[in-house]
Design a protein that fits this description.
The protein is of the alpha+beta class. It folds into three domains: about 1-110, Transcription Regulator spoIIAA (2-Layer Sandwich); about 115-200, 2-Layer Sandwich (Phosphorylase Kinase, domain 1), CATH 3.30.200.20; about 205-380, Transferase(Phosphotransferase) domain 1 (Transferase(Phosphotransferase), domain 1, Orthogonal Bundle). The chain is about 40% helix and about 20% strand. It is built from 13 helices and 13 strands. The strands form three sheets. It has a six-stranded antiparallel sheet with strand order 6-7-8-9-11-10, covered by helices on one side. A five-stranded mixed sheet has the order 1-2-3-4-5. A hairpin with a 2-residue loop joins β6 (about 120) and β7. About 40% of the residues are buried.
Length: about 400
């Protein structure tokens, strides 16, 4: 363990192993370090960790809990370390950065990361749902109404073009009226910070919904979900709104009925946001309607097949597959999958946007055709149940 008490923001480095045998010492050292840090703000650099286990992560969380109102940012470029932190689900696991300069810049000067338990306009901000150097999302509520909301705050370091794009998209989302879209409430722009306020309904997460179906859903259930979500996204596209960040945390289920939100409603799961972005987005291009199509395709593949279409041990290798390779054939995991369903999945997951459906409307037409065909097949062969394994 290495300490830097001279930097603008105090920094501690853990190296080697953060596991059961080192947990007690790590907790004691980090607790003392946070207590002595100015404003109880510090950076924990985990770049040099080779091994981390749940007991080691628990030690970090316990240290943060032992120092009230402490703010701890994490540097964790390795995907396995980030996953270990995120899987804890603890609110003390604050923003995670890929490099120390990003963490220092955020902790030293980014106001969007320092709003927990503060007021923005007429909203009281609570725990951080997720955060990075580009923005932060907080659980929130009005001062005069306890109904749960979320507030998505853009980094105050965003340039004028980014602020304009954020405001335009957020205002447009507030005008959407589709029943499967979680409504936006308003956009805040006080000249310094700009934020989107949206409803935050309670309900099942994506993972919990899949869990009620045994980890994956039938083809029919998957196509029903896809049809409802694609219709909602088409409603947005028709009004000039591209989502661009569709991932599991954006969906909520009530009585098996899904809705989609503009921003994550829940803390992130095991996969990073990049796992659901299209290849063109990973290349740094702005999202398009066909990018949303790709993201929905990743989610549908997960729902029906039970695994992500791109798999590897390291995050960097997964991104390389998304950029240069092709998704794993659904038949590898589900040998009995109908040919037309496999072709449909591979079409919406095509690396080249031109090889996907021309629009969400065309995608919906394909789903309707698939659903009708499978219904007629079930009438001819009742054993091919619409609720069977495939």
């Amino acid at each position: 363990m290495i300490e830097d008490r001279e930097a603008e923001v105090r920094q501690m480095v853990f190296a080697g192993k953060l596991a059961a045998e080192t947990a007690d010492e790590a907790q004691a050292r980090l607790t003392a370090f946070l207590e002595a840090a100015p404003a109880r703000r510090a950076i924990l650099d985990l770049t040099l960790l080779a091994i981390v286990d749940p007991i080691g992560v628990k030690a970090i969380i316990n240290a943060a809990r032992a120092v009230p109102y402490s703010q701890l940012a994490y540097v964790a470029p390795a995907a396995f370390v980030r996953r270990s932190l995120e899987q804890s689900g603890a609110r003390e696991v604050g923003p995670i950065y890929l490099s120390r300069p990003h963490a220092i810049a955020a902790m030293a000067g980014s106001a969007h990361l320092q709003l927990r338990e503060k007021t923005l306009a007429k909203f009281r901000l609570g725990n951080t749902i997720t955060a990075n150097d580009l923005g932060a999302i907080y659980a929130a509520a009005r001062h005069d109404n306890p109904a749960p909301l979320l507030v998505q705050v853009l980094s105050n370091e965003a340039n004028a073009q980014q602020r304009l794009a954020f405001a335009k998209s957020a205002k447009a989302w507030c005008e959407l009226t589709h029943p499967r879209i979680v409504p936006g409430v308003e956009v805040i722009d006080d000249g310094d910070l700009i934020a989107f306020v949206g409803e935050r309904p309670s309900g099942q997460t994506w993972g919990a919904w899949l869990g009620t179906h045994g980890g994956r859903v039938s083809v029919e259930e998957g196509l029903r979900w896809m049809s409802e979500m694609a219709a909602a996204i088409e409603h947005a596209h028709q009004r000039g709104v591209v989502h661009g960040e569709l991932r599991p945390e954006c969906f909520v289920f009530n009585d098996d009925l899904p809705r989609v939100a503009r921003a994550p409603l829940f803390p992130p799961g095991n996969a990073l946001p990049s796992a659901y972005r299209s290849p063109e987005q990973l290349r740094g291009e702005p999202p398009t309607p066909r990018s949303d199509q790709f993201s929905l395709g990743v989610l549908l593949y997960e729902a029906i097949i039970g695994t992500h279409p791109f798999t590897a041990e390291l995050e960097e290798l997964i991104i390389a597959q998304q950029l240069q390779g092709a998704p794993l054939s659904p038949r590898v995991f589900l040998p009995g999958i109908p040919d037309e369903i496999e072709r449909f999945l591979l079409c919406i997951l095509a690396r080249d946007p031109a090889d996907r459906f021309a629009s969400i409307g065309d995608l919906l037409a394909a789903i309707a055709s698939l659903t009708e065909r499978r219904y007629h097949q079930s009438l001819i062969s009742p054993s091919a149940s619409l609720r069977g394994d495939i």
